[in-house]
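Re: the 239-residue chain
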Amino acid sequence: MTALVFLVFSLYQCTLVQGADVLPPEVQHGYGDHSLVSGIVRELGEIKSVLKDQKVLLEEIKKGRTDGNACSTEIQYELKELKSTVADQKVKLETLQKQLADKPNVAFSASLFGHGGETVGGYATEEILKFQKVFTNIGNAYSPITGVFTAPVKGVYYFGFSAFANGKSSMGVHLRKNGNQVVATYDYNSNHKDVNGANRAVLILEKGDEVYIGLWSQLHIFDSHNSVSTFSGFLISPM
């Protein structure tokens, strides 16, 4: 198509420039069949119009190719960015899955007795409370024999406890980490009524750190089948 347009355009140029050599003598000198002259002029006009249309079409084709290439380049760039994002998300997902797979499951919950109704205390020195009725002990980090929780891994842990005393008894217990008091709850029963308290803490523990509930000297704690005195904890996140 381009070659044809070029050929016609060349003929048109030659006709315009060398019209005297191409046209018949009668046309050159202004005599002869005027209809022939008019026909030639008309045909030249039509050729000029066709050439103009072809030029516009050619420009549109060129522009279309340019726009198409630009569009293709943009799409390829966006696809590349999308592939990169997907690859990054895949790496993050695999990392999270590995962390979840490697994360140890640690959780426990127990009450002091969980049966009947019994009060202990009044000791001359502080005693470690042994919460014997175990509800949950995932990871076996809590020992109902010693009453001590031993951290299996370094991490952030949550601990909570509650304590109850009835009648004339005063109650006082605290949470200790490696022998050091962290938080406590107590109530000196001056009204001779049932008393209770609770507290909680989030701690960073090293592997092997010990956490337990201590009963203050001379004070008491009560538990029954209602499990009103409890000790619980779990690993929030390893470090």
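Residues 52 and 128 are 102 Å apart (CA to CA).
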